[in-house]
Amino acid sequence: NKFKEGLAKTRNQFTSKVNDLVAKYRKVDEDFFEELEEILLQADVGFETVDELMEALRFEVQRKNIKDTAGIQSVISEKLVEIYEAGDENITELQLENEGLSVVLFVGVNGVGKTTTIGKLAHRLKGEGKKVMLAAGDTFRAGAIDQLQVWGDRVGVEVIKQAEGSDPAAVMYDAIRAAKTRNADVLICDTAGRLQNKVNLMNELEKIHRVISREIPNAPHEVLLALDATTGQNALVQAQTFKEATNVTGIVLTKLDGTAKGGIVLAIRTKLHIPVKFVGLGEQMDDLQPFDAEKYVYGLFA
Ligand code: GDP
Q1: pTM for this structure?
Q2: Ligand 1: does its nearest atom lie under 6 Å from the Cβ of 259?
């Protein structure tokens, strides 16, 4: 169970604190609720989700006349899943064409794990029998093109690239042409991760969008934002900027295995209303998992 393994850090802190609390209080009362709230906030679940959860818990405790804390964990899990799934942002599957070329554009700040995620996703889609190609659209960061090529070689998919410093929109144009010629199913495009001022970011992404949609009207089919779970609230700030700059259709939350604050998944859902489509649970090729609220929450309490 990848989720269970990947969430070990969060589970060790968050769940053991909840378990300690349950043992300490025995009775469900206001003090218990208050301390639980504190633990949830420390796990980066976020104020909004915590408020929502506490309200749901209080209601449930009253309705079922729950007096003592034994077994309250399962009520918490149930409510967390309900809260997550109540949103309209639960389309976790990639929305790709059944026939013809689909384009997936990746955006995100340098260092969050964008290149690694592109490699992992290429591997996953290839495993589903799709012909995948990569476009090296980060022509700005030194080494970005080589790094993508390394992943291309590892996974066994072709990388379309130009020289460092060339126009990313021109790379996209080339890549789409090449992908069409080779009858590829999915073209995954990297982009530069500079978070300069928002206007520049917006202009650059707009230009890329324009070139892509001129070649394929429905493309890009997905714009996936890579966020580093270990950066906590900072990830939310990045997400807000990208959301304002372009139409982000999904989030890939990387390095969830590297943080004890895995509650950030829930904060993203409440704050941004963008579905988390995948989570990164390690550095290896098959450490990318489709996000599943139930597996995630039960992974925490397992
Ligand atoms: P980029 O600059 O956004 O393209 O970031 P990279 O793909 O180069 O990743 C930066 C570092 O994060 C690398 O050392 C990756 O191995 C690591 N990394 C990426 N995703 C994950 C993940 O899900 N879990 C862990 N533990 N490390 C990851």
Answers
A1: 0.93
A2: no
